[in-house]
Amino acid sequence: MIDACGLTKRYGEVVAVDDLSLRVSAGETYALLGLNGAGKTTTIRMLLGMVRPTSGSVHVLGTAVGPGEHALWSRVGYLVETPAAYPELTVRENLTVAARLRGVSASRRVDEVVERLNLAVYADKRARTLSLGNAQRLGLAKALVHEPDLLILDEPANGLDPAGVVEIRELLRELSHDRGVTVVLSSHILTEVARLATRIGVIHRGRLVRELEAADLNAFLRQRLSVSTRDPEAAEQALTAAGFVPVRSENGALVLADAQSVREPDVVATVLVAAGCPPTRLVVEQDDLETFFLREVGS
Ligand SMILES: Nc1ncnc2c1ncn2[C@@H]1O[C@H](COP(=O)(O)OP(=O)(O)OP(=O)(O)O)[C@@H](O)[C@H]1O
């Protein structure tokens, strides 16, 4: 569906995207995950031919992205940053224009996306009166009105309230499962990405620093054993004497990060009981997603 090779974009001294290659296959939901300024929007703009790469190439649906490839975009729906709409036209009129531009004449499709994006109440309101969240809904409706095979969305949850975030997640999931739509999206919200994506690309300072299957995400979350006792100093000594490497955490618990402690906490408990300082709490903890992400981007 998408084949981007060695994409680089420089703005003077700033390297917004640096030698980034990615492939997205049919049916995937691929999420570009990165902090503010990581290069997500620039990458997405290059995929869509809105920004010309300084070097590298992009193929979308087998076609090289470049001037004159109009037919290609009838199969692609996209939303980039603040969605643009004709401010004096109503929601329905905006969608009708978008549909016509994509060669779709059926007003049924406009009704369907109005319904699907919960815009019925606003259908006859001018676009300029919409809240940020509803403007985002209109942007998504425009991206979907021609039933594209590929959706490319920059921060689709932007401006939406928590219910709207869930709604859009469900919509994208449904499009992917029921209609086989391929989705490429960017986000800086790891928990959201983890719920939706089948594959995740972590982008940092313009570089794709890691790609992983969402199903493998758990394997990247480090585990450790956290032990509390009434006498942490004695416990630390006993564990050190037994060959463990306990580290005192801020809350006074001892943390053991080695694989054996995580696998066999009973061995740790036995050492502590024998030393006369039995554990009052013994728990295997896992990195949360934010810790994983910050570790990946090294900050
Ligand atoms: N037109 C431009 N001129 C100069 N610098 C730019 C331009 N567009 C982007 N940049 C710079 O390129 C870098 C990447 O920006 P980009 O908007 O792609 O990041 P992003 O990951 O989408 O960030 P955000 O989540 O904040 O939207 C940033 O340092 C940004 O300031």
Automatic annotation (TrEMBL):
SUPFAM superfamilies: P-loop containing nucleoside triphosphate hydrolases. Transmembrane segments: none annotated. GO terms for molecular function: ATP binding; ATP hydrolysis activity. Residues 2-230 form the ABC transporter domain. The keyword ATP-binding applies. InterPro entries: AAA+_ATPase, ABC_transporter-like_ATP-bd, ABC_transporter-like_CS, P-loop_NTPase. Pfam families: ABC_tran. The keyword ATP-binding applies. SMART domains: AAA. Keywords: ATP-binding, Nucleotide-binding, Transport. Belongs to the ABC transporter superfamily. This is ABC-2 type transport system ATP-binding protein. It comes from Lentzea xinjiangensis. The lineage of its organism: Bacteria, Bacillati, Actinomycetota, Actinomycetes, Pseudonocardiales.
